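dumping this here before i forget
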Amino acid sequence: MDMEAGVEHLGRATAQGVDEMLVVVEPGQRSMETARRILRMSKEIGLPAPVFVINKASGPSDEDFARRGLAEAAAVEGLPAPEVIGVIPYSDEIRLSDRDGAAVIDMVGPGLRAIFEGIATRLLERRTVRA
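structure:
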């Protein structure tokens, strides 16, 4: 389910039937705060630990910032560091496809396509392990 930004809609009723939560974060303080709230709420309502994708990473320092922020957010909630299943770099291809209303997967080159396919593969592998 693709949900709007924020966590106001995340509650027990929403959690029914959720077997995996994928959270997309950006390398910024507001995003890390939202991740912390999602980790806390998912724990409170009994969801499995969410997995994360880092989006709009402009380089290794952005990725490191987000990974550290996620680990710190989890530690505050008494949880292990969350799993990051992919990192999507900042991309004009993605920005322009959104601007033009086109499906991202149809507009990106082979490098970004491989990143998206890797994320999808990891999600499918996790589902197979749980089944």
